[in-house]
Amino acid sequence: MIRFSFSSCRWLLGLFCLFTLTAHAQNKGKRDPYAAYLFVYFTGNGPTEEAIRFATSSDGLNYKALNYNQPILSSADISASGGVRDPHILRAENGMFYMVVTDMHVAKNGWGPNEGMVLLKSKDLTHWQSSKIHVPTRFPQWAGVNRVWAPQTIYDPQQKKYLIYWSMRKGNDPDVFYYAYANADFTDLETEPKVLYASPGNKSCIDADIIRKDGQYHLFYKTEGSGNGIKQLLATNLTGPYTPPTPDPYLQQTTDAVEGAGVFKLNNSDKWVLMYDVYTKGRYEFTESTDLINFKKIDGQVSMNFTPRHGTVLPITTTELRALTKQWATTNNPVLPGFFADPEILYAKKTNKFYLYPTSDGFDNWSGKYFKTFSSDNLVDWRDEGTILTLGKDVSWANRNAWAPCIVEKQVNGQYKYFYYFTAAQKIGVATADNPTGPFTDSGKPLIDSKPEGIKGGQEIDPDVFTDPKTGKSYLYWGNGYMAGAELNDDMTSIKPGTQQVMTPDNTFREGTYVIYRNGKYYFFWSEDDTRSPNYRVRYGTSDTPLGKITVPANNVVLEKDKERGIYGAGHNSVLQLPNKANPGRDEWYIVYHRFNYPNGINMGESAGYHRETCIDKLEFNADGSIKKVQPTLEGIKPVKLGK
């Protein structure tokens, strides 16, 4: 038996208490690690676009909009002009979050003058307080100022205060960078503006972003005048003097016009990202560096389901990410960044991943010449796998109109093969590969290049490939203005003689055939109307065989516009049954389709028909096998888990 004296117990108790208090103090001072990112941005010059929006990312490269890409604050409530631009967000030393924005409403007042900025603060990223600063009122010597642009904030460790810096101009003078210190509660400027940097070449300088690394301050900015672009200045003190490095190159990796440079560090990495707004093209470009001197383009790794203008990125914790997504739902439609249409979806058994094969859109009159693919393991987060086929380069018989592809995975001699059917110059070709991401090799000639017998109009476009689970036979469908179908030979690159036939279901058929099999029925989907029309939509019919007569139900609209949600032109679909190795009959289905660009497509006229976005929503069936009408959404679907 072990015996303890009272004094021994008291000593042990004291030791335990000391250990507990020490551990508590250490944990209290320890901050949660950064595990995600918050992107703060605005979207353009339209009446509702000059407002603060949020998006989040788990890796700093692939972002999803929050709040359906709508503002998280009312610009009318926080600003003097009714609009705000160029948001910059900062995590403060005291645990607060500070944000500064340009007080400017181009949609209402044009490009000038603008005379102020807005300061915002928050304890939790979801609830914000704001203060307006009108520079000529606050500093009378600045009467006549006509630009107060792109303010940003940084902590000054010497002054132990927050320094706000921005570009400012009077009359037609060059834009010059100024700074002033914020007051203790971040509601006002407590010092007069002083020059931070003025170009010795008498050029305008705008959109500064200052980063401190290894005791040195790096100021990234846009220089205007002769030779526009992103440059860098260096200083050992926050307030300067700032001088250019040697050499002094432009840092953007594009010949297009850029502005709004922003730099942030990737979590748990030695890599920094320099991003900037390619504002004439409606896109962002990301570059990467380990020294903030040399940068390389990494756009192939980046995706966004929104189109940002001049914003900034803040690393955040998992707890903060949860709070943000609880406050504002994540927007998962569109699922791909930019303009893509006619989406084909594939689940590949070889890789246990999903793949999207769309038309590369955004070209006037559908004049794209290349095809891309994207991969995902959850249907929500998609990785750009690059270009897989280029007309004129990889396809010798056509060099225009790369449209509406489809793909099938087949086992040939025990090996997975991929057969990719595509439209080129209003003909249908086929290319093959050993992997879903290619490289693909074209067959060297069109598979379909003429109309079926008896058909005088329409186009030979929009292929769909379907493998019958009952027989293992594969079929090809195609047509615009008519629906044709035929059985494929075992080589998958030729049509079985005598099987081609016209299958047009009714006069609502326009294009975009897609076929699935469920519970003994073959379901045929097609698109009605013109893809440039807001009324473009999806209908369906059923058949008892892959090439049989199609029965059209009375109420057969599957998907169409939703005016209240601002969704138009929803059509040209593919369909996915979620796979599960443990449960092959898993009755969970998704519809993949394109729609007009949201929210601007409805105002784009005819060009909305070649500025389309790819979306995914659930597809459900009634007990009698009929298809429930799909509600197109802005929020999209939640990530799915694949069965093992």
How would you portray this structure in words?
The chain is mostly beta strands and 644 residues long. It has two domains: 296 residues, Tachylectin-2, Chain A (5 Propeller), CATH 2.115.10.20; 280 residues, Tachylectin-2, Chain A, CATH 2.115.10. Strands 19-3-2-1-20 form a five-stranded mixed sheet. A four-stranded antiparallel sheet has the order 4-5-6-7. Strand 30 and strand 31 form a beta hairpin.
> How many domains comprise the coordinates?
2
The CATH fourth-level homologous superfamily of the largest domain: Glycosyl hydrolase domain, family 43
Number of strands: 39
The CATH class of the largest domain, by name, is: Mainly Beta
Q: Structural class, from helix and strand content?
A: mainly beta
Shape type: elongated
> What proportion strand?
35-45%
Helix content: under 10%
Mean pLDDT: 93
Main beta-sheet annotation: 5 strands, mixed
Strand order of the largest sheet: 19-3-2-1-20
Report the radius of gyration as a whole number of Å.
29 Å
Count of helical regions: 5
Outline the low-pLDDT stretches.
1-29
Distance between the termini: 55 Å
CATH architecture of the largest domain: 5 Propeller
The CATH topology of the largest domain: Tachylectin-2, Chain A
GO molecular function: hydrolase activity, hydrolyzing O-glycosyl compounds
Pfam families: Glyco_hydro_43 (PF04616)
Protein name: Glycosyl hydrolase family 43
Keywords: Carbohydrate metabolism, Glycosidase, Hydrolase, Polysaccharide degradation, Signal, Xylan degradation
